[in-house]
Write a structure and sequence with these properties.
The complex is a heterotrimer. Chain A contains 26 helices and 35 strands. The two termini of chain A are 40 Å apart. Chain B is mostly helical. Chain B has one domain: Formate dehydrogenase/DMSO reductase domain (Formate dehydrogenase/DMSO reductase fold), CATH 1.20.1630. Helix content of chain B is 68%, strand content 4%. A two-stranded antiparallel ribbon of chain B has the order 1-2. In chain B, helix 3 runs antiparallel to helix 4 and helix 4 runs antiparallel to helix 5. The two termini of chain B are 18 Å apart. Chain C is of the alpha+beta class. Chain C contains five helices and eleven strands; from the N terminus they run E-H-E-E-E-E-E-E-H-E-E-H-H-E-H-E. Classes of the chains: A alpha/beta, B mainly alpha, C alpha+beta. At the A-C interface, strand 3, helix 5, helix 6, helix 11 and helix 23 of A face helix 1, strand 2, strand 3, strand 5 and helix 4 of C.
Chain lengths: 966, 325, 243
């Protein structure tokens, strides 16, 4: 039989292949892009890339549909005179005009009151640059999305052990035997996680998933442990209780590497109550913990300087110091703390059977103890002791937003970190492993300014816009202890707000609390839709005017690549490029993609030219910085310092001659140095030749126990990852938190919380982890709103980004509310029927889908599938707006008025992490005669000038697409 | 299955045409052995064959609407060794050719008697062509029926009854039409065709009922358990991988309400069997062409419903994978 | 005789859809021509995909299993879609067992899709021909590609390597060994289609804890017992008996 169509025949065309870095989500996989006649033919994972090793996800493989999406903005736009924000009536302007407008406005603000300019960015992957721009400009009002993402995860872990999950560290699944995943979003570090999870399972590892919902990763767990949202802390504390009760903890690890054996003064009358007993050994300066603590030695039965050679301290007990003060080891305090957190208690809270909780504890403890790994890697600890091997207790954990996005998340994550620590799994094979530049001191050294005087006209900010307070005196408050920042980060409301509180920026700016601002610049954050709580009201705030008819937020600049909901509210729209059209750095100064074995950073190099008049936001910042004569962008003679972004990346140094820049690889004149070295004019080319990625694999002996590994610490100090080569001991007991509590109790000199916040700070700054119900639970009627409502992001969509993607939107065209059949039928809701979900803040009408994979007290949906009519260049009858919905309408950005204030953010009281998952709802069926559409609905957003055509049929064929379309 | 109207018209039109052709041949055969009076070659057989051709051509045209690429239809004759569809594609034109020859020979009365028996029975060339045509007609019924009957996992279709029903229904439809045609062009044959039309319609009722009973008792061989290879009694789909529909959701479901689906069965039972039998008897009694034609039209409409139901009732195992968006 | 096939490991598939879109992007610009999407930006978007990932729930809470189930053409050894094709457009390659559609012969009659119990054939609504998974036949023999990449796009993409590719007729191939040792099975075996693609079931790892493992001699709690419990000169049995 003859074949007419030769299936092996490749279509004709000029083929090119280029490497760059993906940006369809935040994983930052290496990709190889094949072009045919200049059009993208194939995007594959780069097999030579250390992060993804050739694999790619659904989003990455759909990059073509992002590149050629009709929703792309291609021209700078100005809101039409006389039109309202939100109407999305724009006129095209030139970049020159756009820059002139911005230059004039921002120069004036900088010369008068720089804090009136606020810059907030979404998942931008260039926080090093945006943060630096804000600092150079002199405004404290800068943050990226971390505050409403997972700052609790970062802060809770970093304030405990100097590292965190995802970019900063993760589970060592190559060596682990037991892996426990708790509340993990499926888009976080997703490709490496998928890859490792599969290998782990094939190697015979046991995978337990603790999650209210069983989807994605949890689907392939050997055991699913359904849990009520927001109660994870109770589970961890009960497991710690059981581990201590049965002696299933790693005593040697706790003694040497944590503050477990260090004595804490328990004399309520003494000045140092709650603080560590100290020797008079001189303290080291700076941000590392001074090594001046005290142990109670078992051999000599007396107090000795901690980590004295041959001393063996008690972890438990109560001791009287020489001066008569009573003291207990941290571990005893932990034991006291968890005394009442029994599995029986936790079972009531979490909904997990007592036997399961105990068994989880036993599985963890026994695996850690009996499946020990001894790697034949000799290393020396920071105290000078040589070790022949590296020990591992192969129990690994991973957690993400499921823990973080609750108002009790910080303490919950502290509990998790302590659980990981008492099992002896920190930076050890089979447990948790750091990634450069972590571990950092506890907390890291970076500090924000501490006073309003640090914000001055025409002057860079005196400090980092974001930092890590170590004591109350590090807070960024004025003489009345009121916030200096617009989002109130680093104030007494949210002292450890290491990533800021972007979720409150608009509300605060609108209410002019703590002060009015002038210009709000938003980069790729959809604050008029899925990236904000209380969406409908925030949209009104963006469009709200004062009695003089002036906008309460006077000027709004939005930079985005797509016609998002937020763009409709802009006064000025800056069209960004896609990731395939620009230079970018995944920098060690931001959140790099380091591996466990050493630092990794990477770049994007354009594979196709920019579409229309799009301009990368990086170039916008360089241009603006130059026009505003910001010091970092200007030569001494006042002339422009950097031609463009690539030039800036090559030549910028954090300080003149520091040798530290955005890229760590191929530094030095000829590219012979790394981490530190003078600028290399050919740095981009060298990255390009090397798969756009720099990966330094450290010697094996530097790869473990890095908090205490002399070799590593010296190396890190030498390469300026760290300032000192001092140990980073784990904080079982947090003296940092205690200091805030003491201030709140009026027992500490220095900055004091305002009266109405004293109780709040005293309560939540507990030096030991504790469980409390999420804040909203205390302020809502739990009988009226009996269910928890949460969201997850599907693996084939990243936030709101992909509804304009013709392939991905076919997978998630609209969303259902998933409800347990018993819960739904008790409420009279049918499978596939329309239902209402209502919280004390708002309500949504949506479609119901019965599911046996959800804990009956929880309802959930995929996040950000629902769209506002016409946004993302979808037709007005698109399923996304007709049937899709956002849970955000049920969630408030502020808590109801209570003793801490009238307008306190709905956030973790320690870190300001947005408490997305605290919301409680009730559900009921929609009436038969109601519209068969989701609620609320919004006016249609018209197509913006410069966006593309949306035909009835799409026939993509690389090399022919634009020709046909054109 | 999703009832495709192009296929429904194809099968009902050629079925009626084939039935009418069989009626003509039956008439001529009876006449040849002098059981029936001979008829005017042009008026009856010539015009009758022309009507047969109209139905066959109509069916053929309808079939093209089912093809994505009708310009390549000629390729469809190549796989006669394995494909009943390919066989149908060969036999249908062959039959049309035979009907055409048969009709032309009758119309222009190009006929010779090959031999005559002692009893006076005459074997004419046209009758030889007609008998060959009749064989082709049965072959075409077989091919068309087997297109459905050969698909073993469409259990509702995978039965000899599929071919038998299709043959009998097409033949019945043709004989009803023949009755009306005869009333107009050869009134003395009207009663003969009418009786046969009734007999065949009743036979079709019996076999079609048999298939309805059979199908109501079918136990699906494929289950969620075999479809996924998972041994559990409770398996529910939660997502089919796309939400805006696909060929899987369009081509394999009837998308009709349960009420419409059920009522369609009674509609065709009434319109194909009960009403036509009554109307034919009335038409015969009255010798009224309009009434007889009405019987044909009613039955034809019923046959469309029957075909619709035939498709809709067939449960494709692929549907196991496409139950929940 | 070679029979190329995919082995789908349900034990590790997390349902990410990477195979779905990587297939689409490769094949829409490949020898299968463009793969049409209708209503790409409006109501009910629908397009031609060769591979889909579905989700099922098995059992009842809390003993629910969530199953992600990728499905594409299974390249049956006895493919019912091939003999029914009237034009010979649907064919099975002798050299490697791949079931293909000759797009230049196909008349778009859809009969082959009726004849497939698995629902894996997709009509292209603008080209009006039947399309389906080709096992990326235009990749796997392309000598311009590095040998490690001569695999179907879905296999290269799959983050959990839940898709194995190889010759199921070679008893010693990785895929045959895996099918043999990991319980590989075929879908709807009742029809005798003998799908070449196989699926691997969920396998569970469990931990058995023995009572004595909770009570070990080296329990660190013992180290926390402090000092002698009674003074040496307190009375003992020695003070009252002599034996």
């Amino acid at each position: 039989m003859t074949v007419v169509h030769d299936p092996l025949q490749a279509p004709e065309g000029r083929i090119e292949t280029k490497n760059t870095t993906c940006y369809m989500c935040a994983c930052r996989c290496g990709i190889r892009v094949t072009l045919r006649d200049g059009e993208v033919r194939y995007i594959q994972g780069n097999p030579d890339h250390p992060l993804n090793k050739g694999i790619i996800c659904a989003k990455g493989a759909s990059g073509i549909m992002k590149q050629y999406s009709p929703a792309r903005l291609t021209k700078p736009l100005r809101r039409k005179e006389g039109s309202e924000r939100g109407d999305a009536e724009f006129e095209e302007i030139s970049w020159d005009e756009a820059f002139s407008i911005m230059e004039e406005r921002l120069a004036h603000l900088r010369a008068t009151d720089p804090k009136k300019f606020a810059l907030f960015t979404g998942r931008d992957q260039m926080q090093a640059l945006t943060g630096m721009f804000a600092k150079q400009y002199g405004t404290p009002n800068y943050a990226a999305h971390g505050g409403f993402c997972s700052v609790n995860m970062a802060a809770g872990m970093i304030y405990t052990m100097g590292g965190s999950f995802w970019e900063f560290g993760g589970p060592d699944l190559e060596r682990a035997k037991l892996f426990v995943m708790i509340g993990t979003a499926e888009d976080h570090h997703s490709n490496p996680m998928k890859m490792e999870l599969s290998k782990f399972k094939r190697n015979g590892g046991r995978f337990i998933s603790v999650n209210p919902v069983r989807t994605g990763y949890s689907a392939i767990a050997d055991e699913w442990v359904p849990i009520k949202p927001g109660t994870d802390g109770a589970l961890f504390l009960a497991i710690i209780h059981e581990l201590i009760r049965t002696g299933l903890y790693d005593r040697d690890f706790l003694v040497q590497y944590t503050n477990s054996a260090e004595l804490v003064s328990t004399d309520e009358d003494s000045d140092d109550f709650g603080l560590f007993a100290r020797t008079d050994i001189p303290q080291d300066p700076d941000c590392f913990d001074p090594q001046d603590r005290v142990w109670w030695d078992r051999n000599s039965d007396k107090a000795v300087h901690a980590r004295t050679k041959d001393a063996d301290p008690f972890l438990l007990g109560e001791f009287t110091l020489a001066d008569g003060r009573e003291a207990k080891p941290s571990f005893q305090l932990l034991k006291d703390r968890v005394e009442d957190y029994t599995p029986e208690w936790a079972s009531e809270v979490t909904g997990i059977p007592v036997e399961t909780i105990k068994r989880l504890a036993h599985e963890m403890g026994i695996t850690a103890r009996d499946e020990k790994i001894e790697l034949p890697i000799a290393w020396t600890d920071v105290w000078g002791k040589d070790h022949d091997t590296v020990t591992g207790n192969p129990v690994a954990f991973h957690a993400m937003r499921g823990l973080a996005a609750h108002s009790n998340g910080f303490q919950t994550i502290r509990a998790l970190t302590i659980l990981m620590t008492i099992l002896g799994t920190i930076d050890r094979p089979g447990g948790f492993r750091h990634k450069a530049p972590f571990p950092r001191p506890i907390p890291p050294c970076a500090k924000t300014p501490k006073s309003p005087d640090d914000v001055k006209p025409n002057t860079p900010l005196n400090g980092m816009p974001l930092g890590w307070p170590a004591t109350p005196d590090d807070l960024f408050v004025d003489e009345n202890n009121q916030p200096v920042r617009l989002d109130k980060a680093f104030s007494w409301e949210f002292p450890l707000a290491a990533h800021g509180l972007m979720q409150n920026a608009i509300t605060n700016a609108w209410r002019q609390d703590p002060y009015p601002i002038d210009t709000l610049m938003i980069f790729m954050a959809n604050m008029a839709w899925n990236s904000t709580m209380n969406t409908a009201n925030v949209r009104d705030m963006l469009n709200d005017k004062d009695e003089n008819g002036e906008y309460k937020i006077p000027y709004l600049i939005v930079c985005d690549a797509f016609q998002s909901e937020m763009v409709a509210y802009a006064d000025l729209v800056l069209p960004d490029t896609t990731y395939l059209e620009r230079h970018d750095t995944i920098s060690m100064l931001d959140r790099p993609i380091s591996e466990y074995d050493g630092p990794v950073d990477s770049v994007r190099i354009p594979v196709v030219p920019p579409t229309g008049e799009t301009k990368p936001f990086q170039e916008v910042l360089i241009e603006l910085g130059s026009r505003l004569n910001l010091p970092a962008f200007t030569n001494k003679d006042g002339s422009r310092k950097y031609r463009d972004y690539p030039d800036f990346i090559v030549n910028f140094e954090t300080e003149p001659g520091s040798g530290i820049g955005f890229l760590a690889g191929w530094r030095g004149k000829g590219g012979e140095k790394f981490m530190k070295g003078e600028p290399n004019p050919n740095q981009w080319e060298m990255y390009e030749k090397n798969n756009c990625v720099f990966h330094y694999e450290m010697p094996k002996s530097y790869q473990y126990m890095r908090n205490w590994n002399r070799g590593y610490l010296n190396w890190a100090q030498e390469h300026r990852l760290l300032r000192y080569a001092e140990p980073i001991n784990i904080h079982i007991y947090s003296e940092i938190l205690m200091n805030f509590r003491l201030a709140a109790q009026g027992k500490r000199e220095g900055k004091q919380p305002p009266e109405h916040l004293r109780k709040r700070v005293e309560t939540y700054f507990d030096p030991l982890p504790f469980y409390f119900e999420p804040l909203e639970n205390h302020l809502t009627d739990k009988h009226k709103y009996p269910l928890n409502a949460v969201t997850q992001r599907p693996m084939a969509m990243y936030h709101s980004w992909d509804s304009q993607n013709a392939w991905l939107r076919q997978i998630h065209t609209y969303n259902f509310m998933y409800v347990h059949p018993k819960t739904a039928s008790a409420a009279g809701i049918k499978d596939g029927g329309w239902m209402w979900a209502e919280s004390m803040h708002g309500k949504v009408r949506c479609l119901c889908r019965y599911s046996e994979s959800v804990e009956p007290g929880t309802v959930w949906t995929w996040n950000a599938i629902g769209k506002s009519k016409g946004a993302w260049r979808l037709d007005k009858d698109a399923n996304e707006s007709e049937k899709g919905f956002l849970l955000n309408h049920l969630i408030s950005e502020e808590l109801p008025a209570h003793e801490a204030g009238e307008h306190v953010s709905n956030s973790d009281p320690n870190t300001g992490q947005a408490a997305w998952y605290d919301v409680r709802v009730r559900i009921y069926p929609a009436a038969e005669d109601e519209d068969k559409t989701s609620y609320p609905q919004f006016d249609e957003m018209p197509a913006l000038p410069g966006t593309g055509k949306t035909g009835k049929v799409l026939k993509y064929f690389a090399g022919m697409f634009k020709k046909k379309a054109g | 299955m999703h009832p495709a109207f192009s296929v429904i018209f194809l099968t009902t039109l050629i079925g009626a045409g084939q039935g009418l052709f069989l009626a003509l041949i039956t008439g001529q055969s009876y006449a040849a052995v002098q059981l029936l009076p001979s008829q005017d070659s042009t008026q009856f057989y010539g015009n009758g064959a022309a009507i047969v051709m109209l139905f066959l051509i109509g069916g053929l045209i309808a079939s093209f609407f089912h093809l994505g690429r009708p310009e390549r239809a000629w390729r469809a004759a190549s796989q006669w060794r394995t494909s009943w569809l390919s066989r149908e594609v060969i036999v249908l034109p062959a039959l049309m050719f035979l009907v055409f020859v048969y009709g032309v020979m009758h119309y222009f009365e190009w006929d010779t008697v090959l031999f005559t028996t002692k009893e006076g029975a005459k074997l004419q060339v046209t009758l030889v062509v007609g008998i060959i045509g009749a064989l082709a007609t049965f072959l075409l019924f077989l091919c068309t029926g087997m297109i459905y009957g050969c698909l073993k996992f469409l259990q509702e279709w995978h039965s000899p009854l599929t071919v038998i029903n299709y043959t009998l229904l097409g033949t019945a439809s043709g004989f009803v039409l023949a009755t009306a045609f005869a009333n107009h062009n050869a009134p003395e044959l009207m009663r003969f065709f009418g009786i046969w039309a009734t007999i065949i319609t009743i036979a079709a009722f019996i076999t079609r009922s048999a298939s309805l009973i059979r199908n109501s008792r079918i136990k699906a061989k494929s289950t969620m358990q075999t479809a996924l290879g998972v041994r559990h009694n409770k398996i529910q789909q939660k997502a089919m991988g796309f939400m805006g529909g696909s060929v899987n959701t369009r081509d394999f479901f009837h998308h009709a309400s349960a009420i419409l689906f059920k009522s369609m069965k009674w509609v065709f039972i009434v319109l194909v069997f009960i009403v036509p039998v009554i109307v034919i008897w009335y038409g015969i009694t009255e010798a009224n062409t309009t009434v007889l034609l009405t019987a044909f039209v009613i039955q034809y409409i019923g046959l469309i419903a029957e075909r619709w139901f035939f498709f809709a009732q067939a449960n494709h195992p692929q549907n196991l994978y496409y139950q929940t968006i | 005789m070679t029979q190329l096939a995919l082995i789908i490991d349900l034990n590790v598939c997390v349902g990410c859809h990477a195979c779905v879109t990587s297939c689409k992007e490769w094949n829409t610009s490949g020898s299968a021509g463009f793969m049409t999407d209708e209503n790409p930006y409006s109501k009910d978007p629908t397009g031609t995909f060769f591979n889909r990932v579905q989700t099922y729930e098995i059992g009842e809470f809390p003993a629910t299993e969530t199953l992600h189930f990728p499905k594409s053409c299974l390249h049956c050894e006895d493919p019912p879609c091939v003999p029914v094709c009237p034009t010979g457009a649907s064919y099975k390659r002798k050299e490697d067992g791949i079931v293909l559609v000759d797009y230049d012969k196909c008349i778009g009659c859809r009969y082959c899709s009726w004849a497939c119990p698995y629902g894996v054939r997709e009509i292209d609504e603008t080209q009006k021909v039947m399309k389906k998974c080709t096992l990326c036949v235009d990749r796997i023999y392309d000598e311009e590609l590095p040998e490690s990449e001569r695999k179907p796009a879905c296999v290269l993409a799959c983050p959990t390597s839940a898709r194995l590719f190889g010759d199921v007729h070679d008893s010693e191939s990785d895929v045959s060994v895996t099918i043999r040792e990991e319980g590989g099975y075929q879908l709807m075996p009742e029809w005798g289609t003998k799908p070449a693609n196989h699926y691997l079931p969920r396998r569970k790892t469990r931990m058995n804890i023995h009572e004595d493992e909770l009570q070990r001699a080296d329990n660190p709690l013992k180290k926390e017992e402090r000092g002698p419990s009674a003074p040496v000169d307190a009375p003992t049995l020695d003070d009252s008996t002599s034996w």
